[in-house]
Amino acid sequence: MIRHLLSGADLDADTATQILDTAAEMAAVAGREVKKLPALRGRTVVNLFYEDSTRTRISFEAAAKRLSADVINFSAKGSSVAKGESLKDTALTLQAMGADAVVVRHPASGAPHRLAAWVDGSVVNAGDGTHEHPTQALLDAYTMRARLGRLAGLSVAVVGDVLHSRVARSNVLLLSTLGAKVTLVGPPTLIPVDIAAALAPDTGVCYDLDAVLPSSDVVMMLRVQRERMNDSYFPSAREYARRYGLDGPRMGRLPEHAIVMHPGPMNRGMEITPEVADSPRSTIVEQVANGVSVRMAVLYLLLGGNNR
Ligand code: NCD
């Protein structure tokens, strides 16, 4: 097993499949009345969050606790980071406290990679800037496999603000490793030139959402990340929704079996309408539940659940 999980590219097909299979076993625990395993008793997991998060932070905390680890939650607000302490000094503090795993979310792309060089424990990237978010890609893959029975050969459209999306990057890497065919869809201003070829050679790019819907098994809608936009990438929210928003009539153009995903948080009415978000085809709530099982599997395997 790998020591750190920093990128979707850290996972070969066997390792990714092992994580997904382990997550399926972990999901069985979530169905029990006592949702706890002793696997990580005596181990310490630190959640180091320098950026806002609801789902991911709570999900990692629940995952570590269900494995009986001691969990320390650190948020930059209210810590010495507010006094200007560097990531390195924070890392050395965590090291001195004996963290076995550090789960880190940071606004700077690459921060988890730096951290991995400074601590002895495992580092899990919980989202770094616009770069990567590998556990989100794993939970997305898990959800697709659970709903559609396979990953190899699936056509997955990843739609919207690809430019700012770490979710899109990690998904392209992981899904292509697992044999799915990804097409990035959005306005040309929000799809970086050459991104597809740079991440995985057979990734497609299309600027017309209506053209890709009839042949998609999965449509993954991305949040328009206004907090990362310092430019106008499209004329107006209305125009964006008209061309790239998923509404009822558009959803009707998908094949019968196709599913609709979104990592959350959603801008309802912008990239997705409430009618679609709350429809039976939507896996949005399942994705959150699956996130806990997948993160349990990641922590368990990285911390040597089966080999240390
Ligand atoms: C995503 C993130 O923070 O990268 N959300 C998540 O982790 N569930 C996507 C987003 O913020 O749009």
Report on this structure.
The chain has 308 residues and is of the alpha/beta class. It has two domains: 8-133 and 288-303, Aspartate/ornithine carbamoyltransferase (Rossmann fold, 3-Layer(aba) Sandwich); 135-283, Aspartate/ornithine carbamoyltransferase (Rossmann fold, 3-Layer(aba) Sandwich), CATH 3.40.50. It contains twelve helices and nine strands. The protein has helices at 13-30, 55-66, 87-96, 111-118, 134-148, 166-177, 195-199, 209-212, 237-244, 248-251, 274-277, 284-302; strands spanning 44-49, 70-75, 101-106, 122-128, 155-159, 181-185, 204-206, 218-221, 259-261. A five-stranded parallel β-sheet has the order 7-6-5-8-9. Strands 2-1-3-4 form a four-stranded parallel β-sheet, sandwiched between helices. The longest helix has 19 residues, at 284-302. The mean pLDDT is 94. The structure holds N-carbamoyl-L-aspartate. N-carbamoyl-L-aspartate (NCD) binds next to helix 2 and helix 6.
| CATH architecture descriptor name of the largest domain | 3-Layer(aba) Sandwich
Which CATH C-level class of the largest domain is it?
Answer: Alpha Beta
Mean pLDDT across the residues is: 94
CATH topology of the largest domain: Rossmann fold
Ions, cofactors and other bound molecules = N-carbamoyl-L-aspartate
Topology:
Elements: H1 13-30, E1 44-49, H2 55-66, E2 70-75, H3 87-96, E3 101-106, H4 111-118, E4 122-128, H5 134-148, E5 155-159, H6 166-177, E6 181-185, H7 195-199, E7 204-206, H8 209-212, E8 218-221, H9 237-244, H10 248-251, E9 259-261, H11 274-277, H12 284-302
Parallel strand pairs: 1-2, 1-3, 3-4, 5-6, 5-8, 6-7, 8-9
Helix pairs in contact: 1-5, 1-12, 2-12, 3-4, 5-6, 5-12
Bound molecules: N-carbamoyl-L-aspartate (NCD).
